[in-house]
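Predict the 3D structure for this chain.
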Amino acid sequence: MKARSRRELEDRLAKRNVPQEVAARLLDRFEEVGLVDDEAFARAWVDSRQRTRGLARPALAVELRRKGIAEETAREVLAEVDPADEEEAARLLIRKKLRSMRGLDEQVAARRLVGMLARKGYSAGLAYGVVRQELGAEWARDD
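Done. Predicted structure below.
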């Protein structure tokens, strides 16, 4: 069974026609005993999605919002994300993607890589900087 946020559980109970007041009492009790913990869920989600998908904080914030995590809880959890880890995740994404871009012009590769990072929530400044450094290193190895 996978971990879920309180709102996800509320939605699932509503789909099964569980009365709202019963669902609320049940979920309140689950929170009391520690079976439902949105903060712990958010931390685990951020860690997992950053490791597996390489997502940056803005993209993670959108996902947490979709999962029903409170804005304040999401802000607290995302504040714990180390910017150095985020930059390293961007570098790993670029290095992996560069393997399939060997024959491309440097400008075309740079544009595609920056676009990929932007879709994953990275800021333009970080994306351009990391792409420039990684492309420079890749092209230097090829010479």
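The mean pLDDT is 91.
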